[in-house]
From TrEMBL:
PANTHER family: 2EXR DOMAIN-CONTAINING PROTEIN. Residues 4-109 form the 2EXR domain. This is 2EXR domain-containing protein. InterPro entries: 2EXR.
Amino acid sequence: MSTFHRFPLLPTELRLQIWEATIEPRTVMVCFSYKPKTNDYLLYPRLQTCTPVPAPLQTSQEARSHLKGFYQQLYSEQPVELEFPIERFDQTIELPRRYVWFIPAIDIVDIGENQLERLRQAAPLVQRLEVERLERDTYWLWLEAETEFPHYHSLKEMRVVTKCDFSAYVKEDSLGRRWPCAKEGVILIDANGKLKPITLMALVNGKVPDERVGEPEFLVGHRHMHDS
């Protein structure tokens, strides 16, 4: 039986508890498309995601109204400044706000190879973040740490998918590199799929990453969204 027809007859308190029981951690994959708005030198990012809206939010008015107390809207309208002007438009283009439902405490926001700047407006809400930095060095840290990390002051976990040797991140730590969360929450993921994920704290304490044996490799390029 796919439909529980007597569900509406249950006590309200019990129904709400059942709706809450549907909440589970998700990885919310986010990318951006860029549209002009009013300025020839500015493009405004629009959030896109291939992660479905949580089903209970679309089940009933009761479920949506109750669960909206747990979920928040993730959105960003941080403009991108251009060096050269784009083609002029004859009229202002009003863009509807795009947002993604997520629960900051349990959901991982995966922005892939996008720069942290793209999510700056929503950064204070994000507690768990995943980024892909596929360069074979840690130069991205110098580019983004000083300007963007301070905006992510609520961050408790940061997953970094990288092709760089993990020892390079240990060296950055020895040079005083500051992260937006504790080192126990910085998780390095080998984009080549040869090593198991490991925290920066474990590496700093001398732990050697375990090799993957008989496990499927981590698939880089698992993101299926395309900018438009």
